[in-house]
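Board notes (copied after class):
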Amino acid sequence: MTMVCHRPEGLEQLEAQTNFTKRELQVLYRGFKNECPSGVVNEDTFKQIYAQFFPHGDASTYAHYLFNAFDTTQTGSVKFEDFVTALSILLRGTVHEKLRWTFNLYDINKDGYINKEEMMDIVKAIYDMMGKYTYPVLKEDTPRQHVDVFFQKMDKNKDGIVTLDEFLESCQEDDNIMRSLQLFQNVM
């Protein structure tokens, strides 16, 4: 059986498209190839890798949503270029780029807005990922309460959906969200 390997575009091109130096890209590529020798990662492998970070919970559903956000071409696999482009946004992108990427993650069906069902699916996936041993212990209706608070804050015109513009505006008005976006600014 032959394995088809993917080689990334030139490092110079990736350096121009991302906020990483050539050296950083080399380090990232070595790590990526170590986990994914073929040069691409499918969803099952992505889930296995991601699950290692959440040993007390079930990260599979959240990893599925995350994988779909990384797989921008919807091919069912993530190449190094896809991975490093998303990582560049999340770690070193502008506030606007990070928020747009997060909106895309939450917009599960990619219709251009977030509805309550999508947000409920995301919140439940996060709770499942964190596991049953979270503190304080969560009540059964906690995910619904979080979704209600999210919509009270984000759904500016109260039409039951959150558009990208509403999401951007609401997040930029929230000091906690803005601080959390800065957390990974100096990683790497």
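Comment from the instructor: The domain at 109-184 is CATH 1.10.238.10 (Recoverin; domain 1). The chain has ten helices and four strands.
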